[in-house]
């Protein structure tokens, strides 16, 4: 049986990706940063680590020897107030993973890194050929991660995804659609939103999870 190691398995996206891979009869091992979330998933299949600790990352990779790796670990909310976390987790954390893979799992078949469509800024109908124009530290850190990862392109089979805003079951109420639904179900009379002039594409998280499977295993 093939094994997929998912960093950030208990994230919104990670939980859905895990379900799809298991349905496809692929063993899933994961990592999570928060011990409080461990109760929601199989502890025997999950390692609590900090990807900023290179030794933690090495230990997991040496133990799992994965066929596939998906890095979903990151700071998910664009409005996070600790700006340094964006750069540390997205760039240095990802670098620790790539460095450990080259040294201890060089035969890995696919490494998928989650970037973000936020790198396009306010571009209308962006695609892969659209020049990046990030407008936040979150977006800048994701684009910088992509450039950093290019240093490993000749050593690892890396694919970088740039997902748009995913929505679905399990998303925190701090995100737009979940926030609106939460306010509606609670029958609240008002809601505080950010910039309502921004146009967004929304992706069903179930479709996104299937896409991650296709990119990882079939791509």
Description:
With 219 residues, this protein is an alpha/beta fold. The chain has a single domain, classed as 3-Layer(aba) Sandwich (Rossmann fold). Helix content is 37%, strand content 15%. It has helices at residues 12-23, 54-64, 83-104, 137-149, 176-185, 205-218, and strands at 3-7, 27-32, 46-48, 68-71, 110-114, 158-161, 165-167, 202-204. The strands form 2 sheets. A 6-stranded parallel sheet has the order 3-2-1-4-5-6, with helices on both faces. α5 links the parallel β7 and β8. α1 crosses α6 (205-218). It is globular, with a radius of gyration of 17 Å. Residues 37-41 have low confidence and may be disordered.
List keywords for this structure.
219 residues; alpha/beta; Rossmann fold; six-stranded parallel β-sheet; two-stranded parallel ribbon; 8 strands
Structural class, judged by helices and strands?
alpha/beta
How many beta-strand elements?
8
CATH architecture: 3-Layer(aba) Sandwich
**Strand arrangement in the largest pleated sheet:** 3-2-1-4-5-6
The stretches of 5 or more residues where confidence is low (pLDDT under 50) are: 37-41
Tally of contiguous helical segments = 6
Shape: globular
CATH superfamily: NAD(P)-binding Rossmann-like Domain
Proportion in helices: 25-40%
End-to-end separation in angstroms reads 19 Å
Strand content bin? 15-25%
CATH fold label:
Rossmann fold
SSE layout and pairing:
Blueprint (H helix, E strand, L loop, with lengths): L2 E5 L4 H12 L3 E6 L13 E3 L5 H11 L3 E4 L11 H22 L5 E5 L22 H13 L8 E4 L3 E3 L8 H10 L16 E3 H14 L1
Parallel strand pairs: 1-2, 1-4, 2-3, 4-5, 5-6, 7-8
């Amino acid at each position: 049986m093939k094994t997929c190691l998912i960093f950030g398995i208990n994230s919104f996206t990670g939980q859905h990706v895990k379900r799809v891979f298991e349905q496809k009869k692929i063993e899933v091992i994961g990592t999570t940063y928060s011990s409080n979330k461990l109760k929601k998933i199989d502890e025997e299949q999950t390692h609590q680590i900090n990807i900023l600790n290179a030794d933690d990352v090495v230990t997991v990779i040496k133990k799992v020897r994965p066929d596939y790796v998906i890095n979903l670990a990151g700071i998910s909310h664009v409005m996070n107030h600790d700006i340094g976390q964006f750069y540390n987790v997205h760039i240095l954390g990802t670098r620790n993973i790539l460095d450990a893979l080259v040294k201890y799992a060089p035969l890995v078949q696919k490494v998928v890194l989650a970037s973000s469509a936020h790198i396009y800024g306010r571009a209308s109908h962006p695609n892969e050929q659209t020049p990046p124009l990030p407008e936040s530290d979150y977006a800048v850190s994701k684009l910088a991660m992509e450039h950093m990862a290019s240093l490993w392109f000749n050593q690892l089979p890396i694919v970088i995804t740039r997902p748009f805003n995913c929505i679905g079951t399990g998303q925190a109420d701090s995100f737009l659609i979940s926030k609106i639904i939460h306010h509606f179900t609670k029958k609240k009379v008002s809601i505080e939103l950010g910039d309502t002039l921004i146009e967004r594409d929304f992706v069903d998280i179930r479709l996104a999870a299937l896409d991650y499977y296709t990119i990882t295993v079939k791509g």
